[in-house]
Design goal:
The complex is a heterodimer of chains A (116) and B (112).
Chain A lengths: L3 E4 L2 E4 L5 E7 L5 E7 L5 E8 L5 E2 L10 E5 L2 E6 L8 E8 L8 E3 L3 E5 L1
Parallel strand pairs in A: 2-11
Antiparallel strand pairs in A: 1-3, 3-8, 4-5, 4-9, 5-6, 7-8, 9-10, 9-11
Chain B lengths: L3 E2 L4 E5 L4 E7 L6 E7 L6 E7 L4 E4 L2 E6 L4 E6 L8 E8 L7 E2 L3 E6 L1
Parallel strand pairs in B: 2-11
Antiparallel strand pairs in B: 1-3, 3-8, 4-5, 4-9, 6-7, 7-8, 9-10, 9-11
The chains are: A mainly beta (116), B mainly beta (112).
Chain lengths: 116, 112
């Protein structure tokens, strides 16, 4: 399985600021996925990022709030813009796991953001 | 709208006994189901999966059962070990892509 490194692992942010989360994979992957887990909630898919094209956002998530970059096959960033306390969540990067079988994803350790 | 539901937020089981974690889903388009395990400060890790053409899949101490008519699946861990203490997420997807729909998770505590 791929190894995923996410930075930062955690951060405390002020309301109204923006933060960029980085996701580095140790192998080339076609699709990368960004998930969010709000406190006490399930993991929710924010968007799918393919290299060379614009990210595809799920219902309820927009590019202005969560801009994503995918400059190459091993790296992606997710920015949480104009943060409010409701954005306090764990943000997880994931990639397809070809060794794990159909529909299996490998996840990074996540970035825990607290917005004051 | 929560399409995958894990109605038990927590479960406590004695070491050596069976742990049964339950999951219900509402979307009949789901045809692939997965269980992930998550330790604190780590990302979820894949545990076991089952496709809708099967009703059981076994991997060592872990068995997943699928009841399509009831839109219900369960994960059995036997015998349970203290190292199994973690949050378990049920996830489902339609065969068309990798987008996974997750439940809220069940926190399993296995006591010695």
């Amino acid at each position: 399985s791929a190894v995923i490194s996410q930075k930062p692992s955690r951060d405390i942010c002020q309301r109204g600021t923006s933060l960029t989360i980085q996701c580095q994979v140790d192998s080339q992957v076609t699709m990368m996925f960004w998930y969010r887990q709000q406190p006490g909630q399930s993991l929710t898919l924010i968007a799918t990022a393919n290299q060379g094209s614009e990210a595809t956002y799920e219902s309820g998530f927009v590019i202005d709030k969560f801009p994503i970059s995918r400059p190459n096959l091993t790296f992606s960033t997710l920015t949480v813009s104009n943060m409010s306390p409701e954005d306090s969540s764990i943000y997880l990067c994931s990639v397809e796991d070809p060794d794990g079988g159909a529909n299996v994803l490998t996840f990074g350790a996540g970035s825990r953001l607290t917005v004051l | 709208d929560q399409q995958v539901k894990q109605n038990s937020p927590s479960l406590s089981v004695q070491e050596g006994r069976i742990s049964i974690l339950n999951c219900d889903y509402t979307n009949s388009m789901f045809d692939y189901f997965l269980w992930y395990k998550k330790y604190p400060a780590e990302g979820p890790t894949f545990l076991i999966s089952i496709s809708s053409i099967k009703d059981k899949n076994e991997d060592g101490r872990f068995t997943v059962f699928l009841n399509k008519s009831a839109k219900h699946l369960s994960l059995h861990i036997v015998p349970s070990q203290p190292g199994d203490s973690a949050v378990y997420f049920c996830a489902a997807s339609a065969s068309t892509g990798y987008a996974l729909n997750f439940g809220k998770g069940t926190s399993l505590l296995v006591t010695p």
